[in-house]
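Key idea: predict the complex, not the pieces.
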Amino acid sequence: MIADAVIEAHGLTKTYGSAVAVDHISFSVGRGEIFGLLGPNGAGKTTTILMMLGLTEISEGDVRVLGFNPAREPLSVKRRVGYLPDTVGFYDNLTAADNLRYTARLIGFRAMEREKRIAAALDRVGLAEFADKRVDTFSRGMRQRLGLAEIVMKGAQIAILDEPTSGLDPHATAELLGIIRGFKTEGVSVLLSSHLLERVQSVCDRVALFHAGRIALMGSVPDLGRQVLGGGYVVDIEADGVGLPERLALIPGVSGVEKTGIGKLRLHADRDVRPEAAAEVVAMQGRLKYLGVQEPSLEAIYTRYFEAKPEQGAQERTRHAA
Amino acid sequence: MQREGSAFSGLGVVMLKELSDHLTSIRMRVLEWLVVLIALAALYGAIQQIKDTTAEDPFLFLRLFTTSRDPLPSFVSFLSFLVPLMAIGLGFDAVNGEHNRRTLSRILSQPIYRDALLFGKFLAGLVTLAISLIALWLLVVGLGLLLIGIPPGAEEIARSFVFLLVTIVYAGVWLALALLFSVVFRSAATAALITLGLWLLVTFIWPVLSGALAQIFIPPDPRYTALGLQTPATAQLEQILARFSPSTLYAEIVVALLDPTTRALGPIYLSQLQGAVLGAPLPFGESVLIAWPQMVGMIATAIVLFVIGYVIFQRQEVRA
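Result:
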């Protein structure tokens, strides 16, 4: 476990009657870390988040947020943690600044400090010029950014973001992820949940892959790649040439050559063999059309992991449905 | 286990925000105009009637509230069905509205308890209703002064003031009910329809139904029927059943307060009337005493309804 942990969960469980939504999960998030809770909808991510905020009862297990128990000391937790719910809503009849003013009053900031914080927060997320516009004119991306402004204004030490990028266009997503990276540089820990694996892969330091209420895999993306996809590199080649597979197999370090299509080959190797493979094709007078090494992607890790363990997955689904 | 911090932190903030929402909403504007216009109509009818018929009445001023002239009902009967409508109109989307706007989880992730949110909403609704009702009361009293030209006595003012307080409590009952259904039902339309349905049931159907039910449980004695009288036991049961409706309680309190000659709010035996000077007004304190159980009952109803809503809200999932 991490030494300087801001969130620590041990055997956290949530049951609804006999249905298990979250099944004995344990994880910890370090200070200034961006931690991703990833997995399909209904895997238990939101329930986990609500338990950390004390907004739903914990059936079993224990979670500490900044050393506080959210079930017993919800106010201490909620004072220090900012939360952006899935599809966040604001009061449409109020302006952006008025919406933040209401939250600031609930937190208990004094008038002077309130205005200063609101102005700074709106500026930070790029909504300064919309401060006095009513929220009903806002796009979805602007609402999400206003939600982040609320977290900035609160001066939260932890930002918990539930599906922050869902339903956003690529441009808005990039902007949002930029703000989230900014949190990290200020030492704010970020815990974000998403079912869009590719989009958040780039910002997360570590991820936990949820499956049917359990954390199936946890670690940094490259680590998980090595762990699940096997060590080594996968190099894809598209080239003509008689006897090319045999020649490529002789390259030192290549453990296998696989034919993936007409003129398409896939090399498994313990190092990056792209230079040697290119040299071989050229030496054979072949035409090299494509040469690339696969980066471990979360999508691939996720798919591979659950392909490899279909029985376990099936069992978990049964239990989840029971 | 003691909870950390105060359940009421944030209460004032929520209340002020909700209050400003209410006072600026179009819904409230419509309700206010409806109430004012109807009050004026009822008042006009009452004053015409009073000018036509009354020779001498020690409580002329109270007649303003209770006198009706066809086809308009009296001011009090107008209020008794407008007040629930106003309260329901303010409360039916209090909590499910936050759900549907997806603001609930964001607000509850701030350092406040759910208590503050629900209680703040209730108080804001009640204050809004109280402001409208006080304004309305002043309007009636002022117009009465101008149009009748007879200043009200201290007792009349006291009686009509207690009537005002009771009306606010009555509004609180319906507000608590509307709030309860806004917690239970996710759809605001469903909550509004069910609250209105329940209001129709207890106000218009229940009084009839309680008579029928009483006759089923305690069939009338033919000896009383032959004399054209109600069987005492049946009448008593009917009244007990009818009093489950807050509308009945309100009507009984209003009668006791605004008609000083009222001596009892139920069936009484002739023996109990021995020595009474029929038609003589009771002092103010005695009138309040007669209606005291009803008042307590109404306050209790409001509290019980609010508590049920509170308990359900505490246990509810906040996720959308």
